[in-house]
Amino acid sequence: MKKHNFNAGPSILSQYAIEETAKGVLNLNGSGLSILEISHRSKEFSAIIEEAENLIKELLEIPQGYSVVFVHGGASMQFCMIPYNLLNKKAAFLDTGTWASKAIKEAKNFGEVVVVASSKDKTYNYIPKGWTIPSDADYFHITTNNTIYGTEITTDIDSPVPLIADASSDILSRPMDVSKYAMIYGGAQKNIGPAGIGFAIIKDEILGKANRPIPTILDYRTYTQEKSLYNTPSCGAIYTAMLNLRWLKNEGGLKEIHKRNLEKARVLYDEIERNKVFVATVNDVNDRSIMNVNFIMSENYKDKEEDFQKFASSKGMVGIKGHRSIGGFRASIYNAMPLSGVQALVDAMKEFEKAL
Amino acid sequence: MKKHNFNAGPSILSQYAIEETAKGVLNLNGSGLSILEISHRSKEFSAIIEEAENLIKELLEIPQGYSVVFVHGGASMQFCMIPYNLLNKKAAFLDTGTWASKAIKEAKNFGEVVVVASSKDKTYNYIPKGWTIPSDADYFHITTNNTIYGTEITTDIDSPVPLIADASSDILSRPMDVSKYAMIYGGAQKNIGPAGIGFAIIKDEILGKANRPIPTILDYRTYTQEKSLYNTPSCGAIYTAMLNLRWLKNEGGLKEIHKRNLEKARVLYDEIERNKVFVATVNDVNDRSIMNVNFIMSENYKDKEEDFQKFASSKGMVGIKGHRSIGGFRASIYNAMPLSGVQALVDAMKEFEKAL
Question: pTM for the full model?
């Protein structure tokens, strides 16, 4: 049976990336060696990591003066790297969920932290409005997409101080005006590639101003100056990411994928609205994520949650169980999820409703 | 033509690990999903990471009271994690090469550093003897195998203070008395698996004594308490590592692989001694690494280095170019390199000599 992979991350990748990775694991471009066995200093791997970084630059139309790097350890590593490199006195944060909270917690080890607003009061089911960014902050940090709660900030904010965005789960899902950000970063395991790498898009001029010694491996300049090759990177993960980025470009890039992502989200949210069995957890349609669609059982069907979980599994749906903090269901519909997968889930929802 | 992979790292892996990884990338155990697309919280991945950690425990006969974890970023990340977690006043180091020097440099950000001895005077071509470990140090740090220089400490040192060993390039090449170490750590990309993960074998009782706040992701307790799953790990790399460890166990474990490694090293060093064209860079036979065999052109054949490089390449040898800091050649003969590969190199050396 065809599986429809709605995992929140690690998550669905393009079939092209999967198949070409398997070939490269056995024999990279006819070299007789595996991608897992070649030197990160080899010309073969240099070409791979350069293509990956250039594809990110090209897809996001990143302006001059920015570097694209792959770093170790995912977004959680960067929760400490960012204050290490950039927080001298004060940092401001918008608290939109678990990941924002974790970034806030790590920053507190390095300086003063101001939370401009939080949606914790309603289990983060909305994006706070009407807050002000302190003009004396070293930077302002947002989480553009909140994987667990299914909310998303889809506008590129104007900020009086350097704007830093954790875009782990919506990077490359839509065009962004990168020039409005000092830094966009995250873990790669949604729209970029598999688990095992983090990425950072950094405005070069913000670096080098920290008033503390920075361990070499946590200093972003180590990555920008050494082109992500200061030490051995996660070569296999970077290879798969490069393939996945190549696929995205071949599919038409960010404008095209954004159109498809909007359509996928529309189809799924429309069904949730229509179907009497389900209800969306995010009420404000403007705050709804187009990457992670969260829904719970409606008032009259609370006792049917497990039934739907089983029914959906029997139809090939994988990874739709909601995060334990809000329960219900979460369908992660990243770039590589085709509309047909979303349609299969919608069909299962309709069928379940009809059978009640 | 058959390629013989002498890369220093990322390096040769068992054919079993390569082939099974390719299968798992396409379809993990018949699940219909790729190892690169499944959740790190899934029962499938839990079983994989648990098997990997247990195999390291079993192969090294690790006693009670130690944890085995996979961390982000390789040995270079741990060069700062170790002092972050363990250096309150003073740390002692044995300086046996570039990697030891890098570990020393990072530790200096956190406290006093004492270098008990260094072999820098002779481009690190020997292991210093006759030094004393200060009894008031928080720990004593060694690099068991020096990949670049081809030297190795093969005895398990008795230390009056916690002994910490960077064993990146000789872990699992021989049995070790783990009880003599407070910690054994490194990057995984030699005998454990592919690039993209670091490992640490930690005596639990040494943790939790730091007199500074530690960023969550750099705190070893985060890894020991969350069983390496605090955040998304490098799932693909851990899968390949598990397969490679399974292979090592099936081959007979550390006693058997040690026997083979000694034999491979003997065959290669014997040829270097016999062959008039080459000379070993490490004079003291007791200091010679059984993992990285370094040799240069002998006095009368200095001008033939490039010729041998080309000749060896034509015979399928890959990655034998020496590190730029010492030139010449380096054959890395990790666990997965069969005796037949070493024999092929020896044959090429003989043939090259004969043709002069």
Answer: 0.98
